[in-house]
Amino acid sequence: ITHTALQVAFIDTLVAVLAGLVIFPAVFSVGIEPTAGPSLVFVTLPAIFNTLPLSMVWSTIFFLLLVIAALTSTISLHEVLTVYVQEEWRLSRRAAAWIVTGACIVLGAAASLSLGGKSFFDLLDFVTANIMLPAGGFFICIFTGWVLDRRFMPAELTNHGALRLHLWPLLGMLLRWVCPVVILL
Predict the structure, then answer these.
(1) What is the pLDDT at residue 46?
(2) Cα distance between residue 126 and residue 138, in whole Å
(3) Which of 75, 135, 173, 183 is deepest in the core (most CB within 10 A)?
(4) Does the model's pTM come out above 0.70?
(5) 34 DSSP assignment
(6) Which has the closest alpha carbon to 112: 94, 128, 124?
(7) Greatest extent of the chain over all pairs of C-alpha atoms, in Å
(8) Per residue in 44-60, pLDDT tens?
(9) How far is residue 155's CA from residue 168's CA, in Å, rounded to a whole number?
């Protein structure tokens, strides 16, 4: 898990930096504000693609890759809700998956149809980015640092002693004291 986590963190950071090196110069070259938020993807980038030769090809490739990225992220989040609904309401997996899918379709349609001005889309973006993500990180730190059995994390991170991990005391201290305070700030 440690090796995979380091790989994912490195590759994710590398892709984000490379995307920034491509997107921000392109945004500045056409005189558009980079602080456009979510509309940067749906308004600004299509305007940039229109200035390129073969704009339809680049737009199609970009939005197909965006759909793939969104779907792969959605699958992991969908699974969490599906299992919760299945266990909490004692439903079959199929019924729980359909309920979660239906709720996602309704929320997604409402968000996509509300674009323009202050919208439901902007509200969802604000709530998830500014409230849910920090709250999730905060409560994960509290749960992992204070509630979870102290032997569980070192056992999981070292594959029950098969791998060496000398930083566990530092990680435990960060999860208990530093990270929650930093997230709150």
Answers:
(1) 83
(2) 17
(3) 183
(4) no
(5) T
(6) 124
(7) 58
(8) 778 888 888 999 998 99
(9) 10
